[in-house]
């Protein structure tokens, strides 16, 4: 017969789960600040600040390894079942997703030195608001994980459309801007890559929210519609419509 867990065993397991949640929350907070700081460096045209964002990416990598090691240890030693197992598997996947969000922030920061070499591009004013929305999605997705709040997770997923709309709007604006001002093609292209990175941050925040919803309820959140219209926009602009 399987042994009944002792109070000490249960307490030790709870402590490990709490530690895992804390690691994921710490990673999420760092990733959110990385995105904010990268975009702030872009707006201020601050190369030194951008380099700090790039350097801090190593801390996210370290935390990912730590979270992964702890999750695997819990699974191997505790053999969790049902809700506990879903949460641990979700945390394991989330750590990789959050690390990827950090990579997007690093990619944004790496483009700052190029952007500072030319005059500011007008349409770039959209990017800080886009970053603010994407960053708040990351924060709320991680809050939903820590608080085990499926309704907050659902709200995060619903906000992904806002980030997509920002991206579609900026894509259309920058495409027109490049056609009218060919000498701005290079900085505009970099801004498009930055906007795409932010759009992917929103996608990954939604991925986290979906995992939280499933780990808490045991049900899928449902298929999310994507509203990336850039392919049709490009065709329309090329055709002169």
Any key phrases for this structure?
mainly alpha, elongated, 241 residues
Number of separate helices? 8
Report on the biggest sheet: none
CATH T-level topology: Methane Monooxygenase Hydroxylase, Chain G, domain 1
CATH superfamily: Phosphate transport system protein phou homolog 2, domain 2
Given this structure, which CATH class is correct? Mainly Alpha
Query: Which spans of ≥5 residues are poorly predicted at pLDDT below 50?
Result: none
Radius of gyration: 21 Å
Structural class: mainly alpha
Mean pLDDT: 88
**Strand composition percent:** under 5%
Secondary structure topology:
Elements: H1 7-44, H2 47-78, H3 82-115, H4 126-147, H5 150-158, H6 160-180, H7 185-217, H8 230-238
Helix pairs in contact: 1-2, 1-3, 1-4, 2-3, 3-7, 4-5, 4-6, 4-7, 5-7, 6-7, 6-8
Folded structure, characterized:
With 241 residues, the protein is mostly helical. The protein has one domain: Methane Monooxygenase Hydroxylase, Chain G, domain 1. The protein has 8 helices and no strands. Helix 3 runs antiparallel to helix 7 and helix 6 packs parallel to helix 8. It is elongated. The relative contact order is 0.13. The model has no long low-confidence stretch (mean pLDDT 88).
């Amino acid at each position: 017969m399987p042994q009944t867990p002792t109070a000490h065993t249960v307490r030790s397991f709870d402590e490990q789960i709490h530690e895992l949640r804390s690691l994921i929350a710490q990673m999420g907070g760092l990733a959110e600040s990385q995105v904010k700081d990268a975009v702030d460096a872009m707006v201020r045209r601050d190369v030194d600040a951008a380099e700090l964002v790039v350097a801090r990416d190593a801390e996210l990598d370290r935390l990912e390894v730590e979270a992964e090691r702890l999750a695997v240890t819990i699974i191997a030693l505790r053999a969790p079942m049902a809700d506990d197992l879903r949460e641990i598997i979700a945390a394991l996947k989330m750590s990789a997703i959050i690390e990827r969000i950090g990579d997007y922030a690093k990619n944004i920061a790496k483009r700052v030195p190029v952007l500072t070499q030319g005059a500011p591009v007008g349409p770039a004013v959209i990017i800080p608001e886009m970053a603010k929305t994407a960053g708040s999605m990351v924060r709320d997705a991680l809050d939903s994980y820590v608080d085990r709040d499926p309704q907050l997770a659902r709200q995060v997923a619903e906000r992904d459309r806002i980030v997509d709309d920002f991206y579609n709007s900026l894509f259309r604006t920058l495409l027109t801007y490049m056609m009218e001002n060919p000498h701005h093609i290079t900085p505009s292209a970099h801004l498009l890559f930055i906007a795409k990175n932010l759009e992917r941050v929103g996608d990954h925040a939604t991925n986290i929210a979906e995992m939280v919803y499933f780990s808490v309820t045991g049900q899928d959140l449902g298929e999310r519609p994507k509203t990336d219209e850039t392919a049709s926009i490009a065709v329309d602009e090329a055709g002169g419509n």
